[in-house]
Amino acid sequence: MANFSSISAKQKGATAIPDSAHFDPLKEVVLGSLLFVPGDQTDKIDKAWRMGPDCVILDLEDGVAQSQKGVARQNLQRILAQTRPPAPAVLVRINPGASQLREDIEAAAHPGVLGIVLPKCDSRKEVVKVARALGEVERRKGMPDRALKLFLLIESAGGLMELPSITGGSARVAGLIFGAEDWCLDMGIARTGCGEELAIARWSIAICAHARGLIAIDTVYTDFEDEEGLRRDAETAKRMGFSGKLAIHPKQIEVIHSIFAPGEKELAEAELLVAAFDRALAQGKGAIAVNGKMVDRPIAERARLLLLRANRSK
Fold it and tell me: I need a surface site. Which of 8, 33, 102, 159 has the fewest CB within 10 A?
């Protein structure tokens, strides 16, 4: 398994993830597509590696039957011991609750793992507890401090209400992920094709993520045969500020990449804006017009970030 300085072929030349509390995930790692794979199904994992996602989420939770949890943990350790260059980033979704938490973390603590996905996250106390457990395992295994990041899966009304609190629970927190299926279940509502019932949750998660400098990852689109529906859903998420999307089937990866990866025209416009704004700054100007549009610092910096992320994804 590759370390973080060579997470995937797309990320060649990317800077290794630092171990400090000042980790800026938006600038360090490209996570546009994140594919869930059950941790107990080796054949699906091998296939996932070949499908080119930015990240594979090895699942120990909902995707694994209770009777297979131990098998999945053992399988996970075998998987992580193998070398599969070029490798995507790897996250591990653990089981919530004290009964399986320690065993899951023990199995997932490996230099080839970017971080832990904490499901059904709705309290700061839970984040603190998991962060402490991760620290203990890292020290025992001789891993760098805060090597394992935390990605919080928001799946309930309670989690949504506690966003400011739980995101401040640990410097390990690197991203927020929206879990719409469980969120709708918790709310007692049906999920529709248009997704308008998800708007308040999506906006809240995206806003909180950007306020904290975290990655915002959108929920799965469950109908993997509906390519146009996935495209519309991903476009909505991108407009709201999400930088990537979960996938449940390999055939969804290409569509997700087409939405979240900037196109040549978008990159060319960004290069033009940044160059023009930098020239203006050198002349003592704070805002200029480019092709009939006003460009000031926030617009220029957004374009600069787009170019930076595109460069890291090559």
Answer: 102
Please answer whether residues 177 and 163 qualify as being in contact, where contact means their C-beta atoms are separated by less than 8 angstroms: no
Q: What is the dihedral of CA 79, 83, 89, 91, to 10 degrees?
A: 20
Domain 4-261: state its class.
alpha beta
Query: b/e per residue, 173-189, with b = 16+ CB within 10 A?
Result: bbbbbbbbebbbebeee
pLDDT for residue 312 is more than 70: no
DSSP states along 183-197: HHHHHT----SS-GG
160 touches 205 (CB < 8 A) = yes
Asked if 113 and 78 count as a contact pair (C-beta separation under 8 A), the reply is no
Cβ pair 273, 293 in contact under 8 A: no
For the chain, give every domain's residue range. 4-261, 265-312
Q: What is d(CA 291, CA 51) in angstroms, rounded to the nearest whole number?
A: 40
Q: How far is CA 79 from the centre of its chain?
A: 21
pLDDT in tens, 143-176: 999 999 999 999 999 999 999 999 999 999 999 9
Q: How far apart, in whole angstroms, are the C-alpha atoms of residue 89 and residue 71?
A: 22
**In this structure, how many other beta carbons lie within 10 angstroms of the beta carbon of residue 273?**
23
Look at residue 258 and tell me whether its pLDDT is greater than 80: yes
CA–CA dist 260, 234 (Å, integer): 8
H or E segment and range at residue 128: helix 124-141
